[in-house]
Amino acid sequence: MNLDRRGFLALGATTVAWSMLPRFALAASSPGDTRFLLVLLRGGLDGLHALQPIGDPAFAALRGTFAQAGSQPASLRLSTDFALHGKLAFFAELYARNALAPVVAVAPPYRQRSHFEAQDCVENGMPGSSGATGWLNRCVAAMPGAKGLALAAVMPLAMRGSGAVSTWSPSLDDDQVDPILWQQLQLLYAADTTLAASFRAIDTGMEGTTGARRGATGLRLPQALAAAAKFMAAPAGPRIGFVEDTGWDTHNGELGILDRKLAELDAGMKAFHDGAQPVWDNTVVAIVTEFGRTAAINGTGGTDHGTGGAAFLAGGAVKGGRVLGDWPGIGRAQLNEGRDLLATTDMRGLFKGVLREHLLVADAALAGPVFPDSAGVRRCPGWSGRCPARGHHECPPQPGAAWQLTPAVVASRLPMSCDNSARPCRVRYSARPALIFRHTSGS
C-alpha cells in the first residue's frame, strides 16, 4: 500500500489518515478469529527500570536513588513486590483491568550481549543467531488462511519466510535519516574506544531530529501501533502483526531517554487499544526486547548490556492483573555473573504459550517448524487449564475440541504446568484466581 508519509503524519498521532487506509467496519467474525501483535523494542529495554522489583531487598541499594531521582515520576505500584515506571500510566490501567501481565526475568536462548545476535535470536525462534526465516512467518504458515503484516520499511527477520506476510510503511522524507542505518551505526561505533565518544555526541545532537525520534517505519511508536490496530481490526485483516521500535540502548543518560521512550510506549499501547476495539477482546500484544541491562547503574547514568529482561502481555484476551515468571532476585550472589538479572524464562516458552493457547497452533507445529530444536522448551505455565491443588495440573484438550476454561488459581511460588508432562514450572508473585487466555470454542 502506498501512502505519502507527509500526508500520513500531517493529521497527527491520534487522527492519522484513516480514510486513506482500508475501511474496517466489522469486528472479528468469531471467537476463534484471534489477533496477535509482537512489539520488539530494539536496543535492550532496562526491565528493572520499567518494571521495578520494589519488594526485592537489594533493589533499594542498587536502584533506589536512581529510580527515585527528583526528575522521576512516582512509580505505579502493582503489588508489594513490583511497580511500573511512572510514565506507564495506561499500562497500570490495563493491569487494574486484568488486561496486562508483566513477565519477569525473560530472555531468548542466546545469553551473550550482542545486539545483533540477540535480536536475531528473538526473531528467528532458534537456539542461536543463525537462520534466514522468522518464527512469526512460520507461525503464519502453520495457520491455514492466516496473513501477517510487518509495519517496517524492510521485512524484519521475524516475518521472513514462505508464509503470507506483507510489509507497510510510509515513505521517508528527503531530510530524514534512515532509522535502520542509524541503529546499525549506533551499535557499530558503541564499542569503538576512539570513535564512541564522538558518535555519542552526534547521537545526542540527533536525538531531537525527525529521523532519530522515529522507529523503523519512519513513525513514532504511538503512530505505528495506531496503524497496526487499524490494519488488524479488519475482519479479514492480518491475524499476526509486527511492530519494531529503536532507541532503547541506554548506556548513558538513561533517566531522560526512558522517560520519553516509556511515555511513547504507553501512548502507543493506548493508541492500539483505542484503534483495535473491534478485535480487542480477541487480541494479545507481546512486548519484548533482546536482553535486559546490568543491575547496577554505570558511571554515566546508564546501564550496560545484560541478560534477563522484562516482557509484557496485554490485550482483551489476556487475563492479567498479576506478574508472571520466576523472580531470581538481584542480590549480588543471585545475579548472573555478578552483574545481570538471571534469565529464568526462555522467551520461546513464552511465545509457545501464547501461540498454543491463544492462536491454537498445534504443539507439533510449535516444537517443529515454528520453533525448531525446542522440544525441551516447555510452554510457560498458566495460560490455560486449572490447577486444583499444589503440584497438580490439567492440560488443555486436543486441537479442534470445544472447551471452556475454568479459572486457574496461581498462588505465589505455586508449581503448575500445562505442557502435557508431569514436570512442574514455576509461576510466582500472584495470589488471585485468574487465567491468561479465555476461549469459548476450539477451531
Summarize the structure.
This protein is an alpha/beta fold and 443 residues long. The protein is built from twelve helices and 15 strands.
Question: What percent strand?
Answer: 5-15%
State the domain count. 1
Largest beta sheet: strand ordering: 7-6-8-1-9-10-5-11
Q: What is the level 1 CATH name?
A: Alpha Beta
The count of helical stretches stands at 12
Largest sheet: 8 strands, mixed
Instruction: Please state the second-level CATH architecture.
Output: 3-Layer(aba) Sandwich
Q: Give the mean pLDDT.
A: 77
Shape: globular
How far apart are the first and last residues' alpha carbons, in Å?
Answer: 31 Å
Calculate Rg over CA atoms: 21 Å
Helix residue percentage: 25-40%
Q: Please name the CATH topology.
A: Alkaline Phosphatase, subunit A
- List how many beta strands DSSP finds: 15
The structural class is alpha/beta
The ordered string of helix (H) and strand (E) elements is HEHEHEEHEHHEEHHHEHEEEHHEEEE
Q: Which parts are unreliable, with pLDDT below 50 for 5 consecutive residues or more?
A: 1-29, 204-214, 383-443
